[in-house]
Write a structure and sequence with these properties.
Regulates the GDP/GTP exchange reaction of the Rho proteins by inhibiting the dissociation of GDP from them, and the subsequent binding of GTP to them. Belongs to the Rho GDI family. GO terms for molecular function: Rho GDP-dissociation inhibitor activity. Pfam families: Rho_GDI. InterPro entries: Ig_E-set, Rho_GDI, RhoGDI_dom_sf. There is one protein chain. With about 170 residues, the chain is mainly beta. The chain has 2 helices and 10 strands, in the order αββαββββββββ. The strands form 2 sheets. Strands 1, 2, 4, 7 and 8 form a 5-stranded antiparallel beta sheet that branches. Strands 3-10-9-5-6 form a 5-stranded mixed beta sheet, covered by helices on one side. The protein is elongated. It starts with 5 loop residues before the first helix and ends with a strand. The mean pLDDT is about 90.
Length: about 170
């Protein structure tokens, strides 16, 4: 009966349902797979962190990347959804300098709800709000962050620690 209802078909396609072949891997129980994170800033090549490479999460904490003080930048996440609809995915981040959480160092940004990926839409990309690195001599130094991708049900899909340096120049 649904097959003959054109408006229902269009509505399902607007939700990402029923448009293409499901790409879910039956051997992988994960619902959300974060493939990469990238930082983009004008005048600099994007810094891309391929999270699908073994050992990439460990390298994030050991090898900090540099952000120029006062630079504006955006973060992007590429991810895949499989098996079921993912409801209310959030990116939550806590930034510390040493053992002290910096003021304004806990942020949360809504990514959204997504249907499983299909061959017509094999990957989702979310661009976060533009940020500006702090400035001044006191702001320079090493920072540690903990980032999590968590859904409305409280399920954490990925959690990792990473480091970055605020410096006078790239």
């Amino acid at each position: 009966l649904d097959e003959n209802d054109e408006s229902l078909k269009r509505y399902k396609e607007s939700l990402g349902l029923g448009g293409g072949n499901d790409l879910s891997d039956p051997n992988d129980p994960r619902v959300c797979i974060i493939h990469s994170l990238s930082m983009e800033s004008p005048g600099r090549e994007p810094v891309v962190i391929d999270l699908s490479t073994p050992g990439s999460l460990e390298d994030l904490k050991k090898k900090p990347f540099t952000i120029k003080e006062g630079a504006k930048f955006t973060m992007k996440a590429q991810f895949k959804v499989q098996h079921e609809i993912l409801s209310g995915l959030h990116y939550v981040q806590t930034v510390k300098r040493g053992k002290i959480r910096i003021p304004g160092g806990k942020t949360s940004e809504m990514i959204g709800s997504y249907a499983p990926n299909t061959d017509k839409n094999p990957m989702y990309t979310k661009t976060f709000a533009e940020e500006e690195a702090p400035t001044g001599m006191l702001a320079r130094g090493n920072y540690n962050a903990v980032s999590r991708f968590v859904d409305d049900d409280g399920k954490t899909h990925l959690e990792f620690e990473w480091s970055f340096d605020i410096a006078k120049d790239w």
